[in-house]
Amino acid sequence: MGMCVGKPANVAHVSSSQFMDYAKSHHERKHRSKTMTFKKVSKASRDENCPVPINLKAFTFNDLKTATKNFRPDSIVGEGGFGRVFKGWIDETTLDPAKPGTGQVIAVKVLKSESHQGHREWLTEVDYLGKLRHKNLVKLIGYCEECENRLLVYEFMPKGCLENHLFRKGVEPISWAIRMRIAIDVAEGLSFLHSNEPDHIIYRDLKAANILLDSEFTARLSDFGLARNGPVGDNTHVSTRVVGTSGYAAPEYVATGTNTRLVMRHLTVKNDVYSYGVVLLELLSGRRAIDDERAGGIEETLVEWVKPFLIDNRGVFRIMDTRLGGRYPKKGAQAVAALALKCLHNDPKNRPTMAEVVVALEEITNMSKNVVETPSPLIASPRSCTRSKQKNRNLVHRRGLANVQNPPLR
What we know:
Layout (H helix, E strand, L loop, with lengths): L13 E2 H10 L17 H4 L10 E2 L2 H7 L8 E4 L4 E7 L13 E7 L5 H16 L8 E7 L2 E7 L6 H6 L8 H19 L6 E2 L8 E3 L5 E3 L6 E2 L8 E3 L2 E2 L20 E3 L1 H17 L16 H5 L9 H4 L10 H14 L10 H15 L13 H24 L5
Parallel strand pairs: 2-6
Antiparallel strand pairs: 1-13, 3-4, 4-5, 5-7, 6-7, 8-11, 9-10, 12-14
């Protein structure tokens, strides 16, 4: 769940059993407005403790009440599986509560559930974001663990989440150049996690809702509740139950069979690479990872919808976001689509590393810098493009014959 500006989005993590029930419940999930209440965590949850990084600010509950105007509904900027997110203000130097509109803007995420899993994710988020610092990871400023409430305090990301900019109606579409900057930012963030020493960190929940944007559209990864350390030494993977978000999970990771709750799957950094391939397709097409509106109410994943079009290079123009109006470098779009397919390879061993993805995207961007992005009414129909090219060839041929038969006077 990200700190998205605007209408709260209903975003939830999906366990192994929920993957199998997703299609049935997809139409039943609707946003429900609730009054914010603060509940106690279970006794079992309180027994799980981890050392809190010393560079985090320990806020009091009253401080955060003041900073968010007592958690008023008009302060809500987002909602997800963890809980609601409130906008607030603190002093830039002392980090004490400040008057609305002054000081540093923050986002306060509140654990809404008594579930044991929710508390574990809270601890995981504090552990990772309290230690990790990178320009493409959201900054965790502090936390509150008081009155048996669990809250996290982040820097505020004014442009909200990528999900809103790609899919929400009425929002101005982002340009090709910004989409490529976001793609590189996300790739660099994942590459940093995967190369982290001594433990390679697997993000495990990459999706458009978890990609936050600052005022300059710099992308940062958020929501580390499902992250975990990767394999160490000679181990090639870690075994874990399936969690994440349907539509983004790698096929080798999604549990199948009857006893899905008991199924363990091999987890590697290449699972993140697959999810990144899905995000690339979202950036190209402007379509969600799962959208039941594509086939008359029949659920279909973005990967399933896109792959038939990408058999040849010309098919890329059939899947491009029409809101771009054709303003993108055609060869650049083809190259990004080809890279997405590599990330989506069924065999995880054949997927590139995120470091390799960063290099490839930078090369594509540099290649496209000198290309003028001009709208083309033919981009949605490669067949029309072919006819147009043939007409041009015929016209040139006829003009050539006319010049031979009627040479110009000297």
